[in-house]
Design brief:
Number of strands: 13
CATH superfamily of the largest domain: Crotonobetainyl-coa:carnitine coa-transferase, domain 1
CATH architecture of the largest domain: 3-Layer(aba) Sandwich
Radius of gyration: 26 Å
Number of helices: 16
Strand order of the largest sheet: 5-2-1-6-7-8
Number of domains: 2
Length: 415
């Protein structure tokens, strides 16, 4: 007989794959909240714990009607519990919730009362994932880490002097998914052995690992010349942006020999490209040669794009299966792109409190044999405090009133 772990289901059960998994999240900002939100989207019951009134990220921009869209997006589908963790009673309550759930995700500074070794004496199979900035536990965030990795010196036009930041918190996002992988791995280990896991994930380590896998560390070691800036040219292959006759911009990529032939056929530039090959004794079907001769190639292609409207370009490129895409603002994406609409099963229009109907995403992971968790509603701050403390810890109404009187939780009218 096979024992089912807390997040496992039997084949064909048509339940969300992580139904039955309980998680306590004590966190702020992006990586930990997104990791927990991802688990929610796969069926886990996640309780996020914040101080009364919300933590440091509860009002972070963008804001609409006084409600943080950032907080809403990262906490949809969770249950919100507010407890004052500055008090000894509040610390005891949060520790009790973690022990009851059996799984915890946090990125807050370590504290003795929420230490893995302390809590595992009460629950030996405890799974705890702790996210830090650096591997030694010191503070770092996505933007400080990215600054140190070299990317700002290869981002932006070639004429720019000094570093150029980018706006996507890529290392936060990757750390979130790494944490999800770690938690699910620990759940499988617990189901098989009955043992818990103390998981340590550092934002900097995630970023450095990614940079190493992409060959950038080896390149810096072995290549005498540092990587330069190349604007919107895609390094090592052929890819760049082009302007259209009606003021739009598109990106075109040719990674493979077939994709290169498709681009040449769509733009009717075979003779011109053959002349480039003859002049440089080059085979433009070779990716490296396309990179080396990118300026000559682009000089041929740019007039073709500039002479045509976006609609004409779309028609020609699609007809030849060219790898391309439009540059879009967020508003253009919503207005024009069917991938960012309720027509995509990923999305649904969800009424979010204080905001109205908002296009809300489910998990991008689709498990054919399991029920898909629909996009969730973000809770009001502290909305589930009393329910969770009653259901998970068995507290009575009198207990809850005493906690409110002592300021450990908010009064009902304040929740």
């Amino acid at each position: 007989m096979t024992t089912q772990g807390p997040g496992l289901t039997t084949p064909g059960s048509r339940r969300p794959v992580l139904r039955g998994l309980r998680v306590v999240e004590v966190s702020a900002f992006v990586a930990a909240p997104l990791a927990a939100a991802t688990l929610v989207e796969l069926g886990a019951d996640v309780v996020r714990v914040d101080p009364p009134g919300g933590g440091v990220d509860s009002r972070r921009w963008p804001v609409h009607n006084g409600r943080s869209l950032y907080w809403t997006g990262l906490n949809q589908g969770k249950r919100s519990v507010n407890i004052d963790m500055r008090t000894s009673r509040g610390q005891q309550l949060v520790a009790d919730l973690i022990v009851s759930a059996g799984t915890c995700i946090t990125n807050l500074p370590p504290a003795d009362w929420m230490n893995y070794r302390t809590l595992r004496t009460r629950r030996p199979d405890l799974v705890m994932a702790t996210i830090s900035g650096n591997g030694d536990g010191t503070v770092a965030v996505d933007y400080t880490i990215n600054a140190a990795l070299g990317f700002p010196w290869v981002t932006g036009p070639r004429t720019v002097e000094g570093p150029v930041n980018h706006v996507l918190p890529a290392w936060d996002l990757l750390t979130a998914q790494t944490t999800v992988t770690a938690v699910i791995t620990a759940e499988l280990h617990r189901a098989r052995t009955g043992e818990g896991s103390n998981l340590k994930i550092a934002l900097a380590d995630v970023a450095l690992s990614a940079v190493a896998h992409l060959g950038l560390i080896a390149e810096a070691q072995l290549d005498q010349n540092p990587r330069g800036r190349f604007g919107n040219d895609v390094f090592g292959t052929y890819g760049r942006d082009f302007a259209t006759a009606d003021g739009r911009h598109v990106v075109v990529i040719a990674l493979t020999r077939r994709q290169w032939r498709s681009l040449v056929d769509a733009t009717e530039t075979r003779a011109e490209m053959a002349e480039v090959e003859k002049q440089h004794a080059a085979d433009l079907g070779d990716e490296a040669r396309r990179w080396e001769l990118r300026e000559a190639i682009s000089a041929i292609l740019a007039p073709w794009f500039k002479a045509r409207t976006f609609k004409q370009i779309r028609s020609a490129l699609d007809a030849h299966a060219v790898l391309w895409g439009p540059y879009q603002t967020f508003k253009q994406m919503l207005a024009e792109d069917p991938r960012a609409s309720p027509r995509n099963p990923l999305f649904a229009q969800v009424v979010q409190p204080g905001l109205g109907e908002v296009l809300t995403a489910a998990s991008p992971i689709f498990v054919e044999s399991a029920e898909r968790v629909p996009p969730g509603v973000a809770p009001a701050m502290g909305e589930h405090t009393r329910d969770v403390l009653q259901d998970w810890l068995g507290l009575t109404h009198s207990d809850l009133d005493d906690l409110a009187t002592n300021g450990v939780i908010a009064r009902v009218s304040e929740g």
